[in-house]
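Appendix B. One record, verbatim.
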Amino acid sequence: EAYDRLSPGFRERLAGLTATHSGVEQHVGSAKAGMVPKRDAIISSHPVVRQNPVTKRKSLFVNKEFTRAIEGYKKEESEALLGFLYQHLGNAVDFQIRALLRQYSIVFWDNRSTLHTATVDYDSNATPREGFRLTVTGETP
């Protein structure tokens, strides 16, 4: 839905763009906090727009936590474009869902077309949150 809400001209501008994604910062942050990093610290390239192979719908594939730059753009251009996309994704609450997690809650989403952002809206000292994540191996975006 986030992709579909963009103007046709803007969707055309995004077509074919790739972005650098980095897990280095998350890896370093986990190590500094004394936690075991969940995955290797990698830097990869992904399309800004991807098409779900099942539904054929296009979606934005950028994430404030991992996307670092639009490849081939000057730093200022990349920051402006990504800033707009992050604002677009973060401010349109009518295509967001919040799941209130309780004991035995199960939440499913498709990483190919859904952004997941954990909101720390609880006292982690009083109520530790623990979860298990299963990820299905999919196609390379």
